[in-house]
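Notes, Module 5: Reading structure tokens.

Key idea: the token line is not a picture. It is a compressed description, and you learn to read it the same way you learned to read a sequence, by spotting repeated patterns. We will look at two proteins. The first is printed below with its tokens.
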Amino acid sequence: MNDQAQIVTRFAPSPTGYLHIGGARTALFNWLYARGRGGKFLLRIEDTDRARSTAEATSAILKGLEWLGLDWDDEPLSQFARKERHAEVAREMLAAGAAYKCFSTTEEIAAWREAHPREPFKSPWRDATELPDTPFAIRLKAPRSGETVIEDAVQGQVRVANDQLDDMVLLRSDGTPTYMLAVVVDDHDMGVTHVIRGDDHLTNTARQIQIYDAMGWPRPVFAHIPLIHGEDGKKLSKRHGAVGLHEFAALGYPAAAMRNYLARLGWSHGDDELFDDAQAREWFDLSGIGRAPARLDFKKLEHVSGHHIGLMDDAALLAALELYLSETDGQPLSATQKQRLVPALPALKEKARTLPQLLDQARFALVERPVDVDEKAAKNLDTVSRGMLKSLTAAVQHASWTRDELEQAAKQVAEENGVGLGKLAGPLRAALAGRTATPSVFDMMTALGREESLARLQDQTELAG
């Protein structure tokens, strides 16, 4: 392959369900490799399984890729729509002597395999000269001796003895192409230079290479990446919790954090754990992919997520929160809620590791008066504490409403009542947020503003009698 040719990668999901986290990582690796080299990232929907392929699954996959922030070039290709092209190539191979007509029935093949359980099927029609006028499949005339060698960019050199491979069917007797043929034809016609996919496809690659060679087509670079396992080291499944990309989105991990985390899942660049998209595109290379299965680690994901939430500017974070709420059928934010929330974001994002954690801490900015005080917080509100809140209300009535001045006023009120600031903070939390676990009371007051804060304090001091 010409090293100067434009890099072209592809992601080729089957639309039979949601986008699995492993598929999302495969897409990301292909996207990073192409985008980091000025290449093209293409999308192909492998919808030849007509019984299981659905438009809903295709839509979910595209939506998942868009959420993850992976843009693709050109229109997504439907593999099923290209079945005539696949059949045409099979007929070309037949005409060139690289394939042959096989008239063996399903029953005859089954009987042969029962009699030769340890051997690949050998069709009696491979070298036949007299052919019947009955339906036939087209089979590849694969080499019977020697080896098919895969020069894999991740797995290294993989050798497969040709006598262990059968003459695979290219075109079924009903005229429909097989998956093996379709993949090769599509990758060739799309100009794919690098096939980056899960190592569960490695056994298919030797067979697909034989089609490339039979057609005289250049082989792409193959890179088979290890699968993702759960924290227990076993193949990822539902028992491990979230496995679909949509589930991670619903758990409130921002897309930027997922890109960072998934990039590091099986690939490394030195000891770098936290990085942005530009760094990932610059650094990503096939040589950095390990051969061992990667393990999903939710604690590490939370750490990465918290890092990215902390880096997001207010506008991006607000947009991420609104997207999260819309995707999880949450109540959309009102203009008033946004007005209170934005000033609180700098303090809130320091500790939040997920978007729902941030929203939980932001509850004080989202609730309306009168604030509903929960049972635990209510214990901090008695006649004495409400009296202190009344004093604080008077003290800050004409304050400049800076964090420092509010804190100074609160310290003075606490001192006048012979208590520490903590004794005032409890009732203040209850009045402002209705809870005991909140951000700093002074961060809440500055975010809420003078009018709303005083109104909430007033609601409680009126109960002091």
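Here is the second protein, with the sequence above and the tokens below, as before.
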Amino acid sequence: MKQVNVQVAIIGGGTAGLAAYRAAKHKTDSVLLIEGGKFGTTCARVGCMPSKLLIAAAEAAHSAAHTEPFGVFVDGNVRIDGKKVMQRVRDERDRFVGFVVEAVDEIDIEDKLIGKATFISEAQLQIDDHTIVNAERIVIATGSRPSYPPVWNDLGDKLVVNDDVFDWLDLPKSVAVFGPGVIGLELGQSLHRLGVEVLMFGMGGQVGPFTDPEVMAYAEKTFSDEFYLDADANVKNIERKGNSVEITYIDKQGIEQIKDVEYLLAATGRRPNIDHLGLDNIPLKSDYRGVPIADPYTMQTSVPSIFIAGDASNQIPLLHEAADQGKIAGSNAGVYPNIRVGLRRSSIAAVFTDPQLAMVGLSHKQVSEKFGGCGCFETGNVSFENQGRSRVMLKNKGLLNLYGEQGTGRFLGAEIVGPQAEHLAHLLAWAHQNRMTISQMLEMPFYHPVIEEGVRTALRDLNAKLKLGSVMISECMECGPGC
């Protein structure tokens, strides 16, 4: 078996792995990138980019079919050609993947190794049955994959995950989506707007990424008004019947229903690809899921010479987070043992539904746990239903809740369902990262008429509720350090 000696070995050639490779190469020439499958990130192949292509088609169809309120009438029905929709999705998806593959092709051939890596020890990897890699430092960046109940495998090719959707040659007639989270909502609403009959089922009432009960309830009602969504479903049976899937469930009126759909789309989450790495052979500390625990500022695990980044870690599974984590992990692997704290940005997440969903900074749950015990935070809000620019565009659905700290007036976080929430979230994330107060945010310019004026309304509401000054700060110190 071939033997290879390197200073840094990186397992995984996705967003985190490529970022780690580039960062490590700035510190040492001895870097090896190991990939067990195809190069081309989750985002480009089966994630954020192909899903946005499907969303764009759905938005075009929805807009064309809803011009009448503006006094604009389109003669005849809007016709959706499913084959052409999916052809564009695949073509553009392949184009995005091509850019990633081109970047990988530019990497020196001696720096790349194809095969599945398994830990033999803290400093040794076996690659398939052909190579032993002796590495002084290792970065785990193996990404994630869809997760769903194993019993669903009995559905055969009638079970699909988001990875499969983007290879469809045509749109199906009907789909049952399980999981009204980020992936389920984006794909489910898009398919509905492209003429596919959609049933969406969830568990425990969770909708989207929200933790704020008020914002989540608004989102649930909004999507339920457009297509069938039961966020706390009672599904009695799922069974393949010929070329369809038969689902027996109790509907929201308490009546048993039996429905045949063409596919079951599992959008019930993703799991880190760490279960076939041979981690049992090394003394890594892991969380309850078996995912290695890492310092979020250095990406160092409990084994000092091993780092982890991206979806494989126990942290936030988003592309920009994966890139940041990969850069930190790769750089520290390159300079180990002289590791450094890396730049971690304020949290920001967006869901590209209509209306869009977004979260910034601390979530409502986090704020409540940290500041809620002694009432040391306040909430300001705005409804977009009567917000000027939103009504002009007939995009007037949404709710924004902002959280601020008593005493200091510091902006803590936000949860949003509303028009162009992706852009509002960026403004708020910049303010959060700069540790701005609510009053400082209100000093910023707001043009008229824009959707951002809704943010100002929420800021004013929050500012009026906050109790500022040293007395309140002293009271809030009773909550503990950091409050």
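Summary for the second protein:
- The chain has three domains: 2-37+115-146+271-335, 150-269, 348-479.
- The CA atoms of residues 348 and 360 lie 5 Å apart.
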